[in-house]
Amino acid sequence: MNPYVISQAPLVLGFALLLIVASFRPHQKESLSGLISIVALGATAVCMWFWPPDVTDYFGGAIHVTPVGRVLAYICLALTAGAMLLSDEYLNKIHVTAVDWRMVVLAVGMGMVNLCLAGDLPTLFIAYELVSIPSYLLAGFSHRDPRSNEAGMKYLLLGAFSSVLFLLGLSFVYGATGETNLLAIHDKLAAAVSTGAAADLVLAKVGLALILGAVFFKVGVAPFHTWLPDVYQGSNLASLAVIASPVKVAVFGMLGMLLWGAFEPLADLWKPVLLCGAAISAVMGNLQGIRQTSMKRLVAFSAVVNAGFILLGIMAHSATVVIFYLGSYGIMSLGTWAAFMAMGTPKADVDELSDLTGLGRNHKWLALAMTIILLSFAGIPLTSGFAAKFGVLLEALRPDMDTPRHTVQVLLLSVVGGLISFYFYFQIVRAMWIEKPESRGSKASPLVPELRWNYVFVLAMSVVVIISLGMFLRLPGL
Amino acid sequence: MLSSLAVVLVRNPVRATLLLILSFLPTSFVYILLQASFVGILQILVYAGAIMMLFTFVIMMINPAPKGGEDPVMGGGPEHGSNKAGALIGLVGLVVAGFLVIPMVWQAASQVSVAAVSKPDFGSLASLSDLLFKDPANNPMTVSFELISFLILVGIIAALNFSRRKAHGGHGGHGGHAAIAVDSITTRPTKALPVLTRAPSPDRK
Fold it and tell me: Least buried of A114, A164, A179, B79, by fewest C-beta within 10 Å?
């Protein structure tokens, strides 16, 4: 029995147990299924910890273990467990069958682990689909809400289209190289670049362009980001804690590993593309984000801005910085969803900016935690958001790297964009601390947050991680 | 090719589905000509047989009620001319994409066919199963195969969940098989049952 199979077994077993729970006690108290899923995710992480370090390939190269992939898989599992913990009471509130939801999330977890470890094209694509298809389901999970249905449908149609482009890109790459193994593709491409076999490379370049387009869509890089605010607004918070946090980490990680690994010989092609994506994201995300009054849409545009920074990190070819950014971004957005869940009323989620008025007076600690997360999103020093952004900028300006032209301009643009984004993060802070409830007229009723232990726990964890990463961790090069 | 064009142009979903079956046939012939006879047969069996059967069935079952003069099943709908600019842009894009893609595919095909001929049993059932299942511990396909089965399982779960939410109606969290039965009786659009026997609406061109 090889260690890879053993590490996947807890997820499958957990899934099977949930199936049994679903068939015998479909509408009982949900804590049991939550416990099963968290144990399954944790057991997978523990099994992966004990993988023998000298074995890198399983199943003839279908699974290729790299240190980067392993770290990303741990991050994804931890964030998924956090989302699972958050979901406990919330799913009850929005009348979603928790067992079903958790089974779908476990499938996402399995997809993410395999996405981080995929070593050949079929595994890569199927893991990508195992992440994507359950994500569409999660977006449309709360069936009462017509907006959730719309979000699920929109995500499904657009996402299926992007998956097809991804598959087309992969098959072009296969056509160009005749290999499915990513390492072999790297060797073939490197050989073709060195000998200048132009005919093969055209096909591979078109394939790479299609892959980049599909993945940019998936992670919401401008100008492929238009679906993002709608899906964020429509989805329920528990699903968002999965779609917007660990799934982002996994797909960005996959993009990074694909570009640094198999497509490393074509760096001249993808570096400018990433730079363009980063520049457009910085402009579009910030300018569109300014005018939002819906909290979820605001977070969606902030995701676009952050995606731009992550692209810069990937372009700078620095795994440490990208992992740090992804981890910090994942925990920040998980904390945001925890805070939103805690702020919601028993009937509805918090949505409009004006709902938050006076939160700082009535619920100091909740408002404080939210403020710290927002400061980290904005990139104020002493938070992990600052360390991550600073690390990306330093790595992109590393003197020994052959950056494409206009890198400096794009970096400046990102920094200016970061300054603009201060405005929309501080709008929330202002609403919470400064504005008086009376100034908004009759609509402003002070929130009645439900401070359940799991919300508080995840929120506190994320704040602790944000501050400790921001203060204590030293990046290489810092 | 022509029939797949017609699938998009015909305004009657049932006819479109039948035409889609027609357009699958040449596709499977292409597979067979490419010496992948098993895939070709699968194309007919699975797609033209099972999946399109399901499509037709679903279209006839759902049959959305006609709204304000347009009948989604039997045709009609918005004016044809309203989207000419979009159609033109699409056509130009198609031609450009064709010019880009066809030479590349041609080139790729010229390389692939050599490899195919060199293997005598290419595309046969035995070689396919060898590829998928031989030596499972070292076969790269094992992982994909298992993951796909997991993916299908998720699809089933989701389908169950979607059907259960219908049964719950407004209450959520309660209800069971009895609720499903009641629900399916009361909410089915009884007005729209005779799909095929209905005469075409007069505003169809």
Answer: B79
Strand, helix or coil at A221? Answer: coil
Among partner residues A61, A97, A122, which is closest to B164 by beta-carbon distance?
A97
Give the mean model confidence (pLDDT) for residues A437-452.
60
**Does the interface predicted TM-score (ipTM) exceed 0.90?**
no
Shared domain check, A301 and A231? no
Residue numbers in B near A203 (CB within 8 A): 104, 107-108
Domain with A466 in it: 263-478
Which residue in chain A has the smallest CA separation from B168? A95
Question: Of A95, A107, A206, which has the smallest distance from its Cβ to B154's Cβ?
Answer: A107
Picking from A231, A259, A287, the residue at the C-terminal end of a domain is: A259
Q: Are residues A364 and A478 in the same domain?
A: yes
Q: What is the mean pLDDT of chain A?
A: 86
Regarding whether A116 and A168 lie in a shared domain, the answer is: yes
Going from N- to C-terminal start, the domains of chain B cover 1-62, 126-197
Please tell me the distance from the alpha carbon of residue A124 to that of residue A408, in angstroms, as a whole number.
34
pLDDT tens per residue across span B116-172: 555 666 667 777 777 777 777 777 788 888 888 888 888 888 888 777 765 554 443
Strand, helix or coil for residue A444:
coil
pTM beyond 0.90, yes or no: no
Please determine, looking at this structure, whether the domain spanning B1-62 carries the CATH number 1.20.120.1200: yes
Q: Are residues A275 and A244 in the same domain?
A: no
β-pair partners for A352: A294
Q: Which of A237, A259, A281 is the last residue of a domain?
A: A259
Q: Do B140 and A133 lie within an 8 Å CB cutoff?
A: no
Q: Write the pLDDT tens digit of every residue in A220-267.
A: 898 888 899 989 988 888 999 999 999 999 999 999 999 998 898 888
Distance CA A54, CA B40 (A): 43
The pLDDT tens digits for B10-25 are: 677 777 777 777 778 8
Instruction: Using an 8 Å CB-CB cutoff, list chain B residues near A152.
Output: none
Report how many domains make up chain A. 2
pLDDT at A290: 85
A58 DSSP β-pair partners: A63
- Cα gap A126→A64, rounded to integer Å: 15
Distance from the Cα of B203 to chain A's closest Cα (Å) equals 31
